[in-house]
Amino acid sequence: MSADSAPAEGPHPGPAANPLGHGPVLLLTNARLVDGRVVDVRISGDRIQAVGTAGSLGPLPAVPGRPAVTTGARIDLGGYLLLPAPAEPHGHYDSAFTAALPTAPAADPADLVRRVTEAALTALGYGATAQRTHVRIGDVHGLGRLEAVLVARQALRGLADLQTVAMPRLLTGRAGADGRAQLREALKLGATAAGGCPELDPDPVGYAQTLLEAAREADCPVDLHTTGRDLAQLARITAVLAPLRPRVTLGPCSALPANGALLLGSAGVRMVCLPQNGGCTGLEGPPTGLRPSLPRELTDARVPLAAGSGGLRDLANPVGRADPLEAAFLLAATGTLSPEAAYDAVSGQARLTLGLPAVRVDAGFPAELLAVRGDSLRGALAGGHSRLVVHSGRVVSRTSAVREFADTVALALPRQTNQT
Fold first, then answer.
1. Which of 204, 245, 270, 356 has the fewest CB neighbours in a 10 Å radius?
2. Is the dihedral of CA 332, 336, 338, 344 positive or negative?
3. pLDDT in tens, 320-364
4. Percent of the chain scoring above 90 in pLDDT
5. Residues 146, 135 contacting (CB under 8 angstroms)
6. Interior CA angle at 309 toward 340 and 311, to 5°?
7. Cα(69)–Cα(56) distance, rounded to whole angstroms?
8. pTM for this prediction
9. Do residues 63 and 111 make contact, with C-beta atoms less than 8 angstroms apart?
């Protein structure tokens, strides 16, 4: 039998022994970094306070006039790799878990809040402490879906940061009057960004122009869906949105031609790809898959590239997973991106797409961290199931995977105590 156990907690009295309820100081010991160093990491509040060689850190030193702060937890991360936490830059939580439903889900706000919350917690368990979900507004939906997502966002406060993108279907002409009004109201209610799919509007360029005006009025970013198939149209759309760059994100662009990367590189926009199947419910038609060479073309053209999950067990991806490491694995498995670049797409670049500060395992940086079972990034991407997630300096999730084998066959192999 082999066990992939949870990180060990140090002996501490009272409730501080539970890292999910620790005090103002969190000490992570014996953590391995990507560069191979084994370190201790001390967290105070929502920031990394110090990083030192293993065994070198203890409680916060006393400040003149104040006692030393010792309340908190000590967690032994021996056998774990410590990484900047990933983020989910492109989800569709309002349609999550609907693939198995016999009919379209009824407009039940309570059920929608439950599904959105479950989707966000699923992504959090995998390590995504910051997330962005696209939400359909207008038409028969009105603002009901957005209001439910905002309720879930409030309930998740302290566990994960959840951003929302308001997605009207139509914005131009007489038919788009309702969408224009709903978009402005959605941004007033608290939607983080303006979005949608210009290709579904009779006037895609006019759609982008309307989004630009609404986004500038609300001082928010734009996050658009596009296949990227029509380069001439894509060039006009990005030209319209030029005043907002670099606060413009496109995705998933799964049909982008080989020369389209150069266009996006010169446009100064960000892009989010969806490695699982290349599509999502924000586009019409079946997913086309992600062209394997596209990530390399985009990075060669210096397009800031993030990667997301897209659908979570919805009609666009009935087996979709909300695991950022899955997206990174798929990017690295094709050989077009290195494991380091693939993980950066779901961590550093994903956070930049969400407008969040960078994270490094170093003093002074936000305490947004993921500890995953493994001795290297390659090992973590290949099968790191046990995970511990730190958000805003607090352990918010832990997953412990255990693997057992029957004893009917004796193998002349050592016990795989550090494998997942």
1. 245
2. negative
3. 999 999 999 999 998 889 999 999 999 999 999 999 999 999 999
4. 80
5. yes
6. 170
7. 17
8. 0.90
9. no
- Compute the CA torsion angle 242, 243, 245, 249 (nearest 10 deg): -70
pLDDT reading at 155 higher than 90: yes
pLDDT averaged over the chain?
90
Copy the structure tokens of residue 419: 């494998």
pLDDT of residue 14: 32
Location of structure tokens 């986004």 = 215
* Whether the Cβ atoms of residue 269 and residue 246 lie closer than 8 Å to each other: yes
For residue 210, what are its two tokens? 């309307």
Q: How many CB atoms lie within 10 A of CB 118?
A: 16
Classify each residue of 386-412 as buried b or exposed e, where b means 16 or more C-beta atoms within 10 Å of its C-beta.
Answer: bbbbbbbbbbbbbbeeeeeeeeeeeee
Summarize the chain as % helix, strand, coil (round to 5): 30, 25, 45
- CA dist 13 and 61 (Å) reads 20
* CA dihedral sign of residues 239, 244, 245, 248: negative
Would you call 158 exposed, middle or buried from its count of C-beta atoms within 10 A (0-12, 13-18, 19+)? Answer: exposed
Cβ distance 89 to 132 under 8 Å? yes
What are the angstrom distances between the C-alpha of 48 and each of 26, 145, 348, 356, 363? 9, 37, 17, 16, 5
Q: What's the Cα-to-Cα distance from 161 to each of 121, 192, 203, rounded to whole Å?
A: 11, 11, 34
DSSP states along 26-58? EEEEEEEPTTS-EEEEEEETTEEEEEEETT---
> At 418, is the pLDDT very low, low, confident or very high (cuts 50, 70, 90)?
low
| 252 cis-preceded (ω within 30 degrees of 0) | yes
Quick one: what percent of the chain has pLDDT higher than 70? 87
Q: Answer yes or no: are the C-beta atoms of 348 and 358 closer than 8 Å.
A: yes
pLDDT digits 0-9 by tens, 26-80: 999 999 999 999 999 999 999 999 999 999 997 666 555 555 555 568 999 999 9
